[in-house]
Amino acid sequence: MKTHRIAVIPGDGIGTEVIDATLPILREAAGRFGFALELQSFDWSCDYYLRHGRMMPEDGIEQIRGFDAILLGAVGWPARVPDDVSLHGLLLPIRKSLDLYVNARHHKLLPGVLGPLRAEKFDILCIRENTEGEYSGAGGRVHRGTGDEVAVETSIFTRRGVERILRYGFEQARKRGGKLASVTKSNAQKHSMVFWDEVTEELAAEYSDVAVTRYHIDAMAARFIMHPESLDVVVASNLFGDILTDIGAAIQGGLGYAASANLNPISDVPSMFEPVHGSAPDIAGRGIANPIATIWSAALMLRHLGEEGAAAAVLQAIEKATAEIGSRLADNSAGTGEIRELILKTLPTP
Ligand code: GGG
Fold first, then answer.
1. pLDDT value of residue 328
2. Which of 251, 275, 306 is the last residue of a domain?
3. Cβ(181)–Cβ(233) under 8 Å?
4. Is position 110 within any domain?
5. Whether 215 is catalytic
6. Count: domains in the chain
7. Annotation says 218 is catalytic
8. Is the CB of 13 under 6 A from ligand 1?
9. Spatial distance between the Cα atoms of 89 and 93, rounded to a whole number of angstroms
10. How does pLDDT run across 59-82, given as a tens digit for each residue?
């Protein structure tokens, strides 16, 4: 029997709750579809930071590098650890050290979930650059706390980084509807974003079967709300992709619906799967977090591991569950445990 080794990092806040809801579904899917999962949990989090002075051990990346995949909940608890410390201490180092340069985020309406728009249907795959750009961490501050204080944060866009994320976008567009939207702000940011546009044009010549449209981020933000049905594959920088995918989650009905995969399509490092949402301290511990984004991310993980039957079954069970209790999801009256049980109950057998 094939065994997949998964590193599980629940993290902070509702991260632990949505992971707790997801693991029984993964175990059940494995049992029914004839494969084994070896799940090893890592308690790296803001609590870990308070005990050890860091978000993960010094050799944390080496500890998880040998796994087949990583499943992550959420990171951050700003009342205990500053957000920039927690993010730059765990999530961003995993993405960068493993060179998971693609962050693929899916936005579509699930059955029974209406979302806040009049749109009846949309299906967007947003490809976010995941290792450089605005989140490079390059910069510094001088003259702290004085009237002469200066803060500099430099975005880094390399030809290798820009070309490979755009190439992934073109490849996905080719597999889907043949349409790619590339997002920049090249009227205002005349170096990095003009460079991004130029690389887009260079690749467009190579992918002549893909129709590429260039948008500015402000226009794209409006389009996500006014005409989401007009979009198919969208490719954007780290910051722009981060913001757009929260809008994507919002138009799906809320942050609890958006799934994501952090991938390196050209290497055998473990990919990482996580909900788009954060740790939501305001609702943590109340048993009301929507686990669907995490369960959906786990289905993406199963597909990535080659367990297509199990992945399809989990996605089918999510859709059956939302069709059954859609209105109760909208008014937040369905709890985390109830959603987990419903998905478990409806999980199809091969
Ligand atoms: N589920 C992952 C998580 O905790 N996301 C919160 C967040 O702010 N992430 C920043 C990012 O995705 O770059």
1. 85
2. 251
3. yes
4. no
5. no
6. 2
7. yes
8. no
9. 6
10. 999 999 999 999 999 999 999 999
Residues in the chain: 350
Query: What CATH number is attached to the domain comprising 167?
Result: 3.40.718.10
274 CB near ligand 1 (under 6 Å): yes
β-strands 3-11, 69-74 pairing: parallel
The structure tokens listed for 309 are: 């039957």
Instruction: Quote the ligand 1 centre to 282 CA distance (angstroms).
Output: 16
The average pLDDT across 256-265 equals: 97
Mean pLDDT, the chain, as a whole number? 96
Q: Which atom of ligand 1 is nearest to the CA of 260?
A: 1
Residue 191's Cβ-count burial label (10 Å; 0-12, 13-18, 19+) is exposed
Does any domain span residue 106?
Answer: no
138 - beta bridge partners?
A: 154
Give the mean pLDDT of 7-14: 98
Residue 226: CB atoms within 10 A of its CB come to: 13
Alpha-carbon separation of residue 232 from 171, 174, 299, 338 (angstroms) = 13, 11, 21, 33
Both 122 and 232 in one domain: the answer is yes
- Give 114-160 pLDDT, tens digit per residue: 888 866 799 999 999 999 999 999 999 999 999 999 999 999 999 99
**Confidence (pTM):** 0.96
Mutational pocket test of ligand 1: of 91, 244, 294, the residue with most ligand atoms within 8 Å of the beta carbon: 91
Of the residues 49, 101, 185, 320, only one is catalytic, namely: 185
Residue-wise pLDDT tens digits, 207-254: 999 999 999 999 999 999 999 999 999 999 999 999 999 999 999 999
